Amino acid sequence: MRLVRITLASTMVASGMLAFGASPAQAATYCTSWKQVENFQQRACVITESGTKIRHRHYVRNLIDRTQKTQVTTFRYINGSVSICKSARVETFSALQTKSWSCDSRRVSRSKYMTRGYITKQAGGNVGVDSRTITG
Asked: Which of 2, 12, 32, 112 is deepest in the core (most CB within 10 A)?
């Protein structure tokens, strides 16, 4: 049984999608791999917090050894309808700092949930990352 779990985890990491905490009593977390945008990386997650809640989380990390800024925006999608988790705002990151933003949704059976995060490149233009879509 342990070998099967390790093999499954290795396959998910290799495919760029992480999932952990899969037993019904625990939260299950589904995150993309880190995506690099200039001197930052970002990833998006959906987390089944309980039988009644889905958490949408967007992580951004500074890859360099000095303070820098970027604009961050986070959205949640429920059955294709979008709402804002974090409004577009310039954030300051210390050297090598990681920050995250999240919001919660009420979990409804058969509903579809996804998180989308954006950061802005220095030359302009947003670069997004989407979590996988999960069913509540």
From this structure: 32
